[in-house]
Predict the structure of Heat shock cognate 70 kDa protein.
Amino acid sequence: MDMTLWPFKVIAGPGDKPKIAVQYMSEEKEFSAEDISSIVLIKMRDIAEAFLGRTIRNAVVSVPAYFNDSQRQATKEAGGLAGLNVMRIINEPTAAAIAYGLDKKVISVGEKNVLIFDLGGGTFDVSLITLEDLIFKVKSTAGDTHLGGEDFDNRMVDHFVEEFKRKNKKDISGNPRALRRLRTACERAKRTLSSTAQTTVEIDSLCEGINFYTTITRARFEELNIDLFRKCLVLVEKCLRDAKVDKSTVHDVVLVGGSTRIPKVQQLLQDFFNGKELCKNINPDEAVAYGATVQAAILSGEGNEKVQDLLLLDVAPFSLGMQTDEGVMTVLIPRNATIPAKKEQVFFTNKGQTNDIIKVYEGEGTRADNLLVKCEFSGIPPAPKGEYKITACFDIDANGILILNVSFEETTTGEKSQFTMNKTIEDRLIFKDRPFFLQALELLIFNLRNTIKDDKFASKLSADEKKVAEDAIDQAVHWLDNNKQATDDEYRKKKDELEIVSCPIIIKLPAVVHHEL
């Protein structure tokens, strides 16, 4: 639906991933969403560097609280493309709550329930947060990543497209340039209607030399968007219900995001809370950036003692679970669980079982949920029931991003293969119709190579130790290239050889690396 309103072309890229096609210097260029986001981040970094007069390498990036795992991972990747180390992905309502808490100086006056109502240009988030002393704890969050100021603009655009068609017998819905100019005028009119009861829309030569001149009242604008405004309140109710908090016990309702300036939005929200005065003390455009800056100060060890003592406890916006044999999702980490969070699930193979599948979903039921990871094991050696144990460890980090650690253990010998999966490397770790120990060997090579390339870990190794590991990896890769038809037992022996060579090196690295390998 949105694609019909955009003044640019969207095409299918590799793996059916959407790409934006634009004309630049007489050539068509294609950009992914991550590419576009990285360009924005580069510009922001350049502005900050020009102001500070120093190089910036680290960043805290805010995202809508209702961003899913894929969107969070893509945001982190965009930061990497921009040459930034993303120290943390922080939810926008949580960042705004920090700004509110420090501004209101409420951190020493007992526990308060604060509702953050964040209505921006493209997304809507609402979070119920308790503040006590120096602790900011998110109790629940709800939202819509497709609800915001742009949707209000689109309603006006559709309205005026019909008006232009009625008056001039011309349909501009397929004219990107005309739509772009009309949308700019509609956004300007929307802003004006927040302070006046009526405004004009004037566009010279909108289409085929025809000038467009019209008026719109605040009442008409509200009528066009009333269902969207009320949708926000439905999500507020959901947030309060999930937090098990009655609206009468909410101490403050904090407005964040430019679209909260719309009078009708404020009126509906105030009526919902039985006439309660809304908190407008913080700048709705700057609150999130302010809070993200405080988070950066905490992570980097900068700032005063009060800032360093702040504790932020956020939640997972969606449930995380696995699909059972019956096709039903078993929830392992429920939505609104405090993050970081970790949960393990253990399976045993049946008699003669030669394959297994792990499907990880995000949401509240597999039929409507987002499939995050599909891990297929095949070529498992036939064995008695319970001979092999598969352990899946689900780890949601502080960024709200899933890391799946999977181990495959032969129960009689205790021999174990372990590997880590996340959205970034998922495509490289889909196992299908390949010998099991070939997969295990490839994963050992992959994880060992990445570990010794990581400066944080490589610094713990001597030059000789690093050379031994690199040579062992190269030899294993060379052996794989020349033994494509090897048996599973041969792959197993080669994996054991690599483990023996690398073991003295691995034990010098942190425990988390041992687990991943």
